[in-house]
Amino acid sequence: MFPYLLRRLLIAIPVLLGITVINFVIMKLAPGNPVEMLIDPNTPPELIEAKKQMLGLHSPAYVQYFKWLQGLAHGQLGYSFSSYAPVSHLIGERIGPTLLLAFAALFAGLLVALPVGIFSATRRNTRFDYLMTGLSFVGTSIPPFFLGLGLIYVFALKLGWLPPGGMRDLNGGGGLGDTLLHLLLPATVLAVAIVGKKIRYVRASMLDVLKQDYLRTARAKGAREFAVIYRHALRNALLPILTVFGSEIPLLLGGSILIEQIFQWPGIGQLAMQSILSRDYPTLMALNLVAAAVVLATNLLVDLLYSAADPRVRYDA
Amino acid sequence: MAYLLEVEELSVSFRTEGGEITPVDGIRIALNPGETMCIVGESGSGKSAAALAILRLLGEGGRISGGSVRLNGEDLVSKTGAELRSFRGKEVAMIFQEPMTALNPVLSVGSQLIEAIRLHSKRSRKEARRVAAELLRSVGIPRPEAVLGEYPHSLSGGMRQRVVIAMALASEPKLLIADEPTTALDVTIQAQILELMKRFRERSGAAIVLITHDLGVVAEMADRVAVLYAGRIVEEADVFSLFENPLHPYTQGLMRSVPSPDAVRGQRLVPIPGSVPSPAAMPAGCRFHDRCPQADRRCREEEPPLEPVRAGGHKARCWAVRERLPATDATVASVGGGL
Amino acid sequence: MNPNIQATNRTELPEAPLLRVENLKTYYPLRRGTFGRAAGFVRAVDGVSLDVYRGETMGIVGESGCGKSTLGRTILRLEPSREGRIYLGGEEIASYSQRRMRPLRPRMQMIFQDPFASLNPRKTVRDLLAEPPIAHGLADRRSVQSRVGRLLEWVGLPKTALDRYPHEFSGGQRQRIGIARALSLEPELIVCDEPVSALDVSVQAQILNLLKDLQEELKLTCLFIAHGLGAVSYLSSRVAVMYLGKIVEIGPKEDLIGRPLHPYTRLLWNSNPVSDPRLRERDRTLPAGDPPSPANPPPGCRFHPRCPYASRKCREEEPPLAGGRHAVACHYPLD
């Protein structure tokens, strides 16, 4: 087990490096540069030149990349071109809210999609099944930004029950309850999208397992239907679901860019948006690195969970 | 004498896209305690559906559309789910064809076996574990303690089938239903498994319903045989009478279709022409008529009844056999009793 | 007509075999880890030698995992061999590249166990039978039609089958199409890999009879691989018994069945159920347990852990396949 883990971690290094190279190339190919984005168009050219010199934008691209890499090797992510704050600091204060939002949505999505999917499968072709299948279609079809704006309009503007955005109340808030209240709407929007897709997935996976011979064996033993479903079928149905929920995490990070804009959620999605607009190379490189690391880490985690759940999968060196 | 199992006019139907089909159509089986009955048939004969129907394990889309199944006089068809569970695994146990898929891949052999034991007896987990190891030993599994902790995928097909059998024997059932238990196995392993079933039968005195397509397995195991074709029993007899004197043209055809290793060189097989009819399009009249060399107009129009035609309860469903055999024989048979 | 004459002729007039296999080995690496280092090998075929003469059918029997199917596929160069030689009509082909094999492909064809999986579902029977000869330049679009008609006749399918698709046929008919497809290239050697084991009993006999007729009419040379002893002995003149990648006994069918020399052969025969209930109380010894894994074969004679007669020598020293027409690999042959 441990050698396997070590090897996976070692393999992650070249993968991450490759991703940074690709990201750097794309960034450089994109039109515009940080200085143009920063400065008033009427600034004298000498000043712009000086600024470029200062930011190291005059050296050839590969030199810039290796400088960045050198910094990384020393644990430095550099300084933001736009705010001059250390990038590590920027990301550090933003990553928490994003992970909170993503995992809250994932958790809520699982909490709804799992039981509904299982019920739909075991009560196939009943009214409940049709209703849930229909709702799951609606859930996948509503664009998140539309749902987000709709929820803000109803719950924040009309009813005034929930805050329209942000993560904590400006006047006096800040407790856990306050954060959860702010979390409710954005997490719901993300969760709805997850639930819509996953209900159908859980249902299909469960239906597939319900056809298996070993369930007939369990029934032939005299096992109760409850035990047949929850002891024998569910664990098998969860295996593919595990993979799919794992693959949802990177999507959540991407999806949060939009949601964080709508709800003014102070996460890395917002930071990413600002950095893209201002061509803030160091911040973008770091964000990308973090996102890639999160994806690789979730993949590894899913694989480990899978091997824990499925005795047929064992990792040895 | 009271029968252990009495199946009367059992019909099984399945919903399909093309409408309802009835792969088992009015079969009648009666089994004494300790007796082994083989149900022989090809794919599509309805033999597996008949076996599953006894414990009402037909699955989605399938239902018993007629007849009754009585175990020790109690009708299983009218039982509720909870009542049925006290029969399943306890009075009647089942072994399935595919040992590869009959065991749950994510539960250890031990936990599946212990579940079977504890479902029908009040034993502590520890006690059940001890019994489980004993059961594994009794079906010829080496290192039973270790195997309890293993998962099905690490066992060979033969070993898995032994585990399935151990599970079936957990509550000392009075009736064992085995649906092609050796079809997926090599002949060497098949021979071992059949020996195992014979030993279980001798030790426990249980009755066995064995579903198979293999006449060799029938010859090894059966006391009595029912030959199933297209959802109907076409011939029924004790095993010696059947092999010595198969009466129905289908049974005769089956026997001539199997190449024997020690057959004289040059001796040709006599295959049955055509193929098994689909349950969605059963032929009128005798269901075998379109493949039967002896069929005449009557066979095409009118289905013959399953009737005793020889002494010892040898029954056949064939017009030609009825004509050939003198009526007295049939009378003797019906007086002679048996089913 | 009389296969006995063929058999005796062969011993009197030594002719070159159509197929000669020498010390053939097919190993599959057991890959482990992400970089796929081979951590060992499954020795599916582990040093097999045999000759198949023109017009004869060599049967190959053994339990699943004994390597019989891999042997057939390796001979057809569908699996890479690790060691050994394969001669087809005197030409050594084990060393050929796939490109160099291509012109030889029509000479060796295969009939598969599952005729459905081996027939392209999007092609009509006509295409299935006409395309191979055209692709190999054995016929042109016009001349191929009469060929296709003849094939249908050989395998007993009606002309109306031509424009239908494989899924419209029953299992037995599909196997007829599979046989016709294999014959469409007029091969010298046909490898039949369990051609009837997926079929119903009553249909098996139809296909076995068809193969027997074709054997006689077309003087086919076949390698007939099956686990069912009945089918093998029905069609073969000689039989080889495989166990864990090796041939343990080979010889004329009558000798192998009537007078098996290897304990495994006898135990395999013993395991076969007899179609006579009066014989079921017969005293018979069965092989113990399961065959071991071909990834880790036992030392000495590979059968010794299951053999009732094994001695110390059997555990330590591997017996060679020795003898004339009826050869056996056993330190203590029966009889």
Automatic annotation (TrEMBL), chain A:
Transmembrane segments: 9-30, 99-119, 131-156, 176-196, 237-263, 283-306
CDD domains: TM_PBP2
Keywords from the UniProt entry: Cell membrane, Membrane, Transmembrane, Transmembrane helix, Transport
Pfam families on file: BPD_transp_1 (PF00528), BPD_transp_1_N (PF19300)
Any one Gene Ontology BP term: transmembrane transport
InterPro entries (alphabetical): BPD_transp_1_N, MetI-like, MetI-like_sf
Annotated PROSITE patterns: ABC_TM1 (PS50928)
UniProt-listed SUPFAM superfamilies: MetI-like
GO cellular component assignments: plasma membrane
Main location: membrane
Membrane topology classification: Multi-pass membrane protein
Annotated ranges, domain ABC transmembrane type-1: 95-302
Subcellular location: Cell membrane
Family membership: Belongs to the binding-protein-dependent transport system permease family.
Name of protein: ABC transporter permease
Organism: Cohnella xylanilytica
Automatic annotation (TrEMBL), chain B:
SUPFAM superfamilies associated with the record: P-loop containing nucleoside triphosphate hydrolases
UniProt keyword ATP-binding present: yes
Keywords, alphabetical: ATP-binding, Cell membrane, Membrane, Nucleotide-binding, Transport
Location within or outside the cell: Cell membrane
UniProt GO MF annotations: ATP binding; ATP hydrolysis activity
Gene Ontology cellular component list: plasma membrane
InterPro entries registered for this protein in UniProt: AAA+_ATPase, ABC_Ni/Peptide_Import, ABC_transporter-like_ATP-bd, ABC_transporter-like_CS, Oligopep_ABC_C, P-loop_NTPase
Gene3D superfamilies: P-loop containing nucleotide triphosphate hydrolases (3.40.50.300)
Recorded family membership: Belongs to the ABC transporter superfamily.
PANTHER family: DIPEPTIDE TRANSPORT ATP-BINDING PROTEIN DPPD (PTHR43297:SF2), OLIGOPEPTIDE TRANSPORT ATP-BINDING PROTEIN APPD (PTHR43297)
Record protein name field: ABC transporter ATP-binding protein
Source species: Cohnella xylanilytica
